[in-house]
Design a protein that fits this description.
Glutaredoxin, 7 strands
């Protein structure tokens, strides 16, 4: 079996996309500066991302907003995983492959820091979806998890049929993380943050230290919101 390879040209193409993440950050800071923090406001602290432009939208009307759709994959222990596993939890999602030697280790390091910060928070989980499903079988991912000290059940490495991985990437994540084909391996540096209702609430550049700090702060914001909702329902 041919080992996937990630070329410098592929990496360069994705570095160019960093401007998208800068635009998201500028929009967020502008919103905060103009609106401030109003007690009792129904406008959410974090935006929603509902189309392929990744334009942040702050709205109290959540009807019709994009949600991660149905999927069927397996984790590193060969356990079935679907969109149901996302319900009720704040989820950090990335795309990767086990033999990546350039971008993936850096992303993994950032995710490890996030995982460590929220290790004792059962409402937070991490999903890393392989874009090389033929190579990255469940046993391969189990070995990768052991080598990289990735704990379960709150950090899942997912694989499955190529058609299913491609569909999830295309329909739920707007085609921003390219899939490995025979010619080589490519995937984006994007880190995605989902709320407990499977809506995209954060899009980050996983190679930027500042974005790692933003992820942690935004997770805390979502958890605080979930705590408020639970308190009102008690």
């Amino acid at each position: 079996m041919q080992t996937p390879r990630f070329s410098k040209n592929d990496f360069t193409r994705f570095v160019v996309r960093s401007g998208v993440f800068l635009g998201v950050a500028v929009a967020a800071f502008t919103f905060i500066a103009l609106n401030g923090s109003h007690r009792g406001s129904t406008v959410p602290a974090l935006p929603f991302f509902s189309d392929s432009t990744l334009t942040p939208v702050w709205t109290a009307d959540t009807a019709g907003l994009h949600r991660i759709g149905a999927f069927s994959l397996v984790d590193q222990r060969s356990r079935a995983t679907s969109e149901v596993n996302l319900n009720g939890r704040v989820t950090v999602v990335t795309f990767f492959y086990a033999t990546c030697k350039d971008l993936c280790p850096r992303l993994q390091s950032k995710l490890a820091a996030v995982h460590s910060k929220f290790r004792d928070e059962p409402r937070v989980q991490l999903l890393s979806i392989s874009v090389a499903p033929e190579h990255d079988t469940a046993p391969v991912l189990a070995a990768y998890a052991e080598a990289n000290h990735i704990a379960t059940p709150d950090w899942l490495l997912l694989t499955g049929a190529r058609s299913e991985v491609e569909r999830v990437e295309r329909e739920s994540f707007f085609g921003n993380s390219l899939i490995i084909h025979a010619a080589g391996a490519t995937h984006g540096e994007t880190i995605w943050l989902l709320d407990a209702s499977r809506r995209i609430r954060g899009v980050y550049n996983g190679t930027m230290p500042l974005d790692t700090e933003r992820i942690e702060a935004d997770i805390a914001t979502l958890l605080a919101k979930e705590t408020q909702i639970a308190a009102r329902g008690a």
